[in-house]
């Protein structure tokens, strides 16, 4: 018996199944209600090489003209360290996270504080500060 990705645990490590978590955002059947949900769904999109979703959820003011994802980058774990604002009634939010990855034979951690805004009832990624 084959299990669909929708029935597997979500890559963002929320504890929910992908179809009920980030999958619904990726398919466009729902929008993230919080900045943290958007952060988690963007992490999952990076892991799944879903550049279209990443571009749709990037603020047009700061989005790159194009986005080329590296298929050799294996995202392994997401840890949300803190959030500020970013709730269903907020217009701005900040999420600090660590995303662990493997690339070739190396391993690493992306530690970023990301900024989000909510416009027209949709959360969008604006930019982030990467910590050394």
UniProtKB/TrEMBL annotation:
SUPFAM superfamilies reported in the protein's UniProt record: NTF2-like
Transmembrane segments: none
InterPro entries, per database record: NTF2-like_dom_sf (IPR032710), YchJ-like (IPR023006), YchJ-like_M (IPR048469)
Listed Pfam families: YchJ_M-like (PF17775)
Residue stretches making up the YchJ-like middle NTF2-like domain: 34-128
Superkingdom of origin: Bacteria
Similarity-based family: Belongs to the UPF0225 family.
UniProt xrefs under HAMAP family: UPF0225
Entry protein name: UPF0225 protein J2X12_002760
Species in which this protein is naturally found: Pseudarthrobacter oxydans (Arthrobacter oxydans)
